[in-house]
């Protein structure tokens, strides 16, 4: 059987961390949790489940995940967010597949995203391929503050699934849009990319049309409309906030 380490980053994830770790332990004999100084009992719950917990002030999404890699005992790593779970098909594939024999440094799988107890194929919610399985000797996380991706050379695609409890409700969609937009704005403001006054509206409108029209969010009723508006808000605020940051340091 493969030797796989599980990796999770957390901040106040007491409602999710136990189920996440138990999901990882279906295929991992080693689980590392990098906690951003949670104020709840995330750490105690993780340690009770047998995870190795590293306490680390938040460095940004990518660097925070990278900080956990030296504590992983195995080269192959399965990285989940605390609100994600393995589904049976992906767990079964991992259990029977020799990862070292694959012509790949990383593996993509499909993800089902939920709003509350509902999921949809529209508005970019499915199949939403994500890269969660990788060899840490040959791949690493992009060093950005928000929505880091694994950087790998050879990537193959698997049709197994991850469940993602993305949003608790509609309010959570907009709360997260504001939070992530602020993080992404910091990366954008620090980069050399040009940002102009018309960019917030352009990118916000483009994000809405992409998710509501091109990715057929209109077929998902109010869920599809709300998700598309959330994506539009996040994109608009990313560019607006980046402009604000740059103006403040001039």
From TrEMBL:
<dbReference type="GO" id="GO:0016740">
    <property type="term" value="F:transferase activity"/>
</dbReference>
<dbReference type="Pfam" id="PF00535">
    <property type="entry name" value="Glycos_transf_2"/>
</dbReference>
<protein>
    <submittedName>
        <fullName>Glycosyltransferase involved in cell wall biosynthesis</fullName>
    </submittedName>
</protein>
<comment type="similarity">
    <text>Belongs to the glycosyltransferase 2 family. WaaE/KdtX subfamily.</text>
</comment>
<dbReference type="InterPro" id="IPR001173">
    <property type="entry name" value="Glyco_trans_2-like"/>
</dbReference>
<keyword id="KW-0808">Transferase</keyword>
<feature type="domain" description="Glycosyltransferase 2-like">
    <location>
        <begin position="7"/>
        <end position="159"/>
    </location>
</feature>
<dbReference type="InterPro" id="IPR029044">
    <property type="entry name" value="Nucleotide-diphossugar_trans"/>
</dbReference>
């Amino acid at each position: 059987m493969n030797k796989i380490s599980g990796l999770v980053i957390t901040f106040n994830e007491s409602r999710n961390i136990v189920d996440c770790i138990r999901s990882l332990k279906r295929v991992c004999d080693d689980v590392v949790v990098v906690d951003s100084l949670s104020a709840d009992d995330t750490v105690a719950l993780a340690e009770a489940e047998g995870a190795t917990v590293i306490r680390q002030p938040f460095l940004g999404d990518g660097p925070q995940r990278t900080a956990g890699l030296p504590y992983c005992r195995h080269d192959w790593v399965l990285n989940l967010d605390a609100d994600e779970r393995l589904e049976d098909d992906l767990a079964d594939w991992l259990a029977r597949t020799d990862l070292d024999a694959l012509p790949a440094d990383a593996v993509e799988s499909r993800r089902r995203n939920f709003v509350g107890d509902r999921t949809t194929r529209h508005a970019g919610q499915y199949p939403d391929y994500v890269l969660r399985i990788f060899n840490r000797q040959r791949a690493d996380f992009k060093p950005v503050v928000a929505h880091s991706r694994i950087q790998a050379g050879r990537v193959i695609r698997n049709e197994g699934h991850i469940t993602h409890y993305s949003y608790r409700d509609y309010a959570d969609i907009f709360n997260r849009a504001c939070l992530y937009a602020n993080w992404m704005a910091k990366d954008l403001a620090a980069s050399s990319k040009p940002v102009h006054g018309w960019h917030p509206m352009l990118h916000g409108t483009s994000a809405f049309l992409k998710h509501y029209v091109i990715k057929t969010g209109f077929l998902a009723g109010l869920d599809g409309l709300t998700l598309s508006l959330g994506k539009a808000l996040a994109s608009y605020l990313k560019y607006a906030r980046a402009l604000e940051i740059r103006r403040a340091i001039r």
